[in-house]
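Quick one, tokens below:
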């Protein structure tokens, strides 16, 4: 299973970006997905998660009201729409996948597969 994250870039504070994460390989299976981020010198932190079916989502407090996670299973792709971006959102964003069938997965240690990360830089 391979995860390819994209969509990062440089944006001004208050702007928006949409990250994408395409899953390839064993695409006949579906996965619970999550987004995490890691800023320089800081630990990786949870951002948002979505269940295998897409019916359940969960957000970290940092993302509530600003970020939206969604998925298009026909395209094997998960998205993270990020609005009202702040300089403190500057991080490398990683997508992750796990074959957990019920609900969302919140802990990084529970995810079996990881993408390479995409850099988001928010200027003030």
């Amino acid at each position: 299973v391979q995860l390819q994250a994209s969509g990062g870039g440089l944006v001004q504070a208050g702007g928006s970006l949409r990250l994408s994460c395409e899953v390839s390989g064993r695409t006949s299976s579906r996965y619970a997905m999550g987004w995490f981020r890691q800023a320089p010198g800081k630990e990786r932190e949870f951002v948002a998660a979505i269940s295998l079916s897409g019916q359940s989502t969960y957000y970290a407090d940092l993302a509530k009201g600003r970020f939206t996670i969604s998925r298009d299973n026909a395209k094997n792709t998960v998205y993270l729409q990020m609005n009202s971006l702040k300089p403190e959102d500057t991080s490398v964003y990683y997508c992750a996948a796990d074959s957990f069938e019920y609900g969302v997965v919140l802990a990084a240690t529970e995810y079996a597969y990881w993408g390479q990360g995409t850099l988001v830089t928010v200027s003030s």
